Amino acid sequence: MFNRKDFISDYEWKAFRDASENFSTPNIFVNLRTIKNHFIQLKDSFPYALIYYAVKANPGVPVLRMLDQLGSNFDIASRYELDKVLSLGISADRVSYGNTIKKAQDVKYFYEKGVRMFATDSKEDLKNIAKYAPGSKVYVRILVENSSTADWPLSRKFGCHPDMAYDLLVQARNSGLTPYGISFHVGSQQRDIGSWNDAIAKTKYLFQSLEDEEDIRLSMINMGGGFPAQYIQPTNDLSDYASEITRYLQDDFGESIPTIILEPGRSLVGDSGILTSEVVLISRKNNTALQRWVFLDAGKFNGFIETLDESIKYPVITDKDGQGREGEVIIAGPTCDSADILYEDEKYKLPVDLKSGDKLYWLTTGAYTSTYASVAFNGFPPIKTYFITDEGVMDQDGNPAVPNA
Ligand SMILES: *Cc1c(COP(=O)(O)O)cnc(C)c1O
User: Fold this and answer.
1) Containing H/E element for 11?
2) Between the CA of residue 76 and those of 52, 96, 265, 275, what are the distances in Å?
3) In this predicted structure, what is the pLDDT of residue 155?
4) Using CA of residue 46, residue 248, residue 181, residue 155, what is the dihedral sign?
5) How far, CA to CA in Å, does 13 sit from each of 8, 32, 295?
6) Of ligand 1's atoms, which has the minimum distance to the CA of residue 268?
């Protein structure tokens, strides 16, 4: 159904096959080289931007270590992510607390650890920041409309109306904080580049009105994530995103473009991963059914949460591709929950001679897979991630990985 070479080179495929040979499934193998290339490409595309990696996309220690060496900063959403990043020797001044939903005691914790940059979108949270992180830089996240063209929208729950953002930045100044800038997230896997145009225009309006009416000079725009990984649905190249978005910034801000922050997650790590699952069982629901049900050892609760509503459609390949006929399948996970179906509306086709024990290789599974896995639903342990590095295969904690199959 898919041509492997459209997604991954022979060289990377061989690296994956060699590294993953003796590991039991399900598992995810992440190639650090791919992440490095994507990071360099992003820097080249947005030479004027600071990069804050959204740690939640893939918090493996080998990933964090490498991005640290490449000069990335880190967008953090919880004290647990913070502890992990600091334990690697990354300093707190390279961290932003990007989650607008946080406890007062967490604000205090971040401040005590040295973090001085905080996102907010509400009065109560801002009060906590003023009290427990005095003098810090704050930026306000605005609501942007994105639900129809982003495959994994991040709307409604985060951000506030620009009018409220205005009030919050005045409140920030009046409570001794440093009003720093505006942030937005146009939705993850955003396929409409124009979404950034709308968000940047709203941002420009806020910069202008706060300066004119309150003498508050903001100096930063955090443009969030949203850049694509390579799934089934086509997207523009990153270079197209960069040239368009740069033009929007120039149109609105002319020569005086503020400090620009990007918070990539999916676009940096998505393409680097291959999730291997094994066919547990193939069945039909009646004697003449045309569709086969293919049950795997990985499912919604073990790597594939983003198949909710079939939102993210991963390319999949098998060792039997190209050898014979293919037929329509419904693909489901191993647990006793009928929500554990990956694809039913989207018509995936797999070889008709597929058998139990055969492997399915799911491409572009480096982002938002392992960390969403449940701890022990039906007793299944969380899917393990391994990292292909120049020093060999490593586990989640950066220790050498031991083959187990
Ligand atoms: C998840 C998240 C990101 C990363 O978004 P992607 O679309 O994966 O690049 C960036 N910023 C914030 C605040 C986030 O919550």
Assistant:
1) helix 10-20
2) 9, 6, 11, 25
3) 73
4) negative
5) 6, 13, 25
6) 9
Q: Nearest C-alpha to atom 14 of ligand 1 is from which residue?
A: 54
Distance of alpha carbon 117 from its chain centroid, rounded? 21
DSSP 236-252: --HHHHHHHHHHHHHHH
pLDDT of the residue at 149: 87
CA distance 192 to 200: 14
Alpha carbon 326 to chain centroid distance?
A: 32
Q: How confident is the model at residue 31 (pLDDT cuts 50, 70, 90)?
A: very high
Q: What is the C-alpha separation between 154 and 299, in angstroms, rounded?
A: 23
Residue 350 pLDDT: 98
The string of pLDDT tens digits covering residues 317-339 is: 999 999 999 999 999 999 999 99
Single out the residue of 347, 364, 388 nearest to residue 303, CA to CA: 364
Q: Which SS3 state, helix, strand or coil, does residue 116 take?
A: coil
Do 217 and 173 touch, CB atoms closer than 8 A?
no
Confidence of residue 146 (pLDDT cuts 50, 70, 90): low
Q: Tell me, using a 6 A CB cutoff, whether residue 224 lines ligand 1.
A: yes
Kindly state the tokens that stand for 394. Answer: 């490593």
Ligand 1 centre and the CA of 354: distance in Å? 37
Q: pTM of the prediction?
A: 0.96
Q: Which atom of ligand 1 is nearest to the CA of 188?
A: 7
**For residues 387-393, average pLDDT:** 97
Q: What is the DSSP letter of 120?
A: E
**What integer pLDDT is reported at residue 147 of this predicted model?**
66
Which atom of ligand 1 sits closest to the CA of residue 98? 13
Best mutation site among 188, 190, 267 for ligand 1 pocket (most ligand atoms within 8 Å of CB): 188
272 lines ligand 1 (CB under 6 A): no
Beta-ladder partners of 67? none
CB 326 within 8 A of CB 318: no
Instruction: Pick the residue whose CA is nearest to atom 1 on ligand 1.
Output: 54
Confirm or reject: Cβ of 265 under 6 Å from ligand 1: yes
Q: Peptide bond before 26: cis, by omega within 30 degrees of 0?
A: yes
The model's pLDDT over 229-250, given as tens digits with 9 standing for 90+, comes to 999 999 999 999 999 999 999 9
